Amino acid sequence: MTQLLEALDNNWEGCDEMWHDFLDAPKFGNDDIYADMEMKAALDIPIKEGLNFTDKWGARPRPLPQALTTFRQLGGITPAMPNGRKSGEPLADGGSSPFYGCDTHGPTAVLKSCSRLDYTSSRACLLNQRISPATVEGDKGKHVFLSYMKAWHDLGIEHIQINMVDGDVLKAAQAEPDKYTDLIVRVAGYSAYFVELDPETQNSIIARTEQQLV
């Protein structure tokens, strides 16, 4: 723990081997029960804390994990974290969205991980996903996408938002914004013209895993 705290204080500088070990550790979003239960336990903390209070109408507050714009704002003031995230980088963009690039086992694994969270005790726990447009083309792609959405519904996941745009298009829009003024993306609870977003928010959308529906 002493070594870890020192690495975090140094923003992982000079600790490449340890940094990669922590990056490679089990992560939420891969249908890994251990990692998923850790995520659930983290969300249960504010849920249980809210039970100690009532508002003036007698209701007990429930946490709102949906990030909206705060995943960028809070990320800018949050120091390095043990999951491998470095100081100042954006946080995960939704209440149940896996951290950028950590969901490596496919879109169904993401859904199964998200299904292990308790949506009855929180509000608007958002899952952002980016899906490759090529995988939903034609009749076959349509049926695959419908199966994916049916799985989302059947697993009882509360809230999903999808960007269906590939990384090459997003990078091209960064390089030549005048040619992509009509490109709209879903950020985190709101939509925006991609070329009007600040570069760090653009990069955070590009960094989302481009899931292949097969």
Give a summary of the structure in a few sentences.
The chain is mainly alpha-helical. It is built from eight helices and five strands, in the order H-H-H-H-H-E-H-E-H-E-E-H-E.
Describe this structure as you would to a colleague.
- This protein is mainly alpha-helical and 214 residues long.
- The protein has one domain.
- The protein contains 8 helices and 5 strands; from the N terminus they run H-H-H-H-H-E-H-E-H-E-E-H-E.
- Strands 2-1-5 form a 3-stranded parallel β-sheet. The protein has a two-stranded antiparallel sheet with strand order 3-4.
- The longest helix is centred in the N-terminal third of the chain and has 18 residues, at 33-50.
Count of DSSP H/I helices: 8
Shape, please? globular
The number of E-state strands comes to: 5
The topology string of helices and strands comes to HHHHHEHEHEEHE
Q: What is the gyration radius calculated from CA atoms? A: 18 Å
Major β-sheet strand ordering? 2-1-5
Number of domains: 1
How far is it from the N-terminal to the C-terminal residue, by CA? 41 Å
Main sheet attributes: strand count, strand direction, barrel closure: 3 strands, parallel
- Average pLDDT for all residues: 93
Strand content: 5-15%
Low-pLDDT segments, ≥5 res: none
Question: Structural class from helices and strands?
Answer: mainly alpha
The amount of helix comes to 25-40%
Question: How is the secondary structure organized here?
Answer:
Elements: H1 2-9, H2 16-24, H3 33-50, H4 70-75, H5 107-114, E1 126-131, H6 138-154, E2 159-163, H7 167-175, E3 184-186, E4 191-193, H8 199-207, E5 210-211
Parallel strand pairs: 1-2, 1-5
Antiparallel strand pairs: 3-4
